[in-house]
Amino acid sequence: MPLLNLNPDELLTTTRSVRKRLDLTRPVPLELVKECIEIALQAPTGSNRQTWHWLVVTDPDQRAEIGRYYRMAVQTYLQSEGACGTLYPEDPERHEVQRRVGDSVAHLGDRMGEVPVLVIPCLDANEAPEYNEAGKWGSIVQAGWSYMLAARARRLGTAWTTLHLMYEKEIAELLKIPDGVVQAALIPTAFSIGTDFKPARRQPLEQVMHHDSW
What we know:
41% of the residues lie in helices and 12% in strands. It contains eight helices and five strands; from the N terminus they run ααβααβααβαββα. Strands 1, 2, 3, 4 and 5 form a five-stranded antiparallel sheet that branches. The mean pLDDT is 94.
């Protein structure tokens, strides 16, 4: 499949969390997912240990069961204090953006089990000494992002989600994940409906960058 004609800056600034524009009817070739993971394996990893593992779930029954857990987790989250759709009520413009994010989270929550491919990047904590939490998670998080970038270039939509971890034990049992292997995320993967994603509105640089001191 030909890659999208995106330069590096365009790829980095238009890889969005895709929830409402996932094509749930179009199969995703496993070879395409493998290509994305191969690229993700070039990400940095602590001490070059490469303690990552990647669960690719395509079985309909397993996807449906993961989707059931995810739907319950989303319902709990959206009813909780601090859910994305309730943030920044003092700023009407920003609050409206958050409300739309909340709507899209609910949309995916109802459909996660229908997404053709679910990818779960994992970390073997038995082989990853916990010098600090940043070092531990720094051996898998950027690899997951690399996967998402590679997927975007191949016309696939993804979203970095972690709400399933409310039921991490149950999903580990379902997928026979060994003890000591922790799940970092659940990344739904499907062809995106359209590829015309744009940069998101972010906080101004001067509000978040500190030069030499805070």
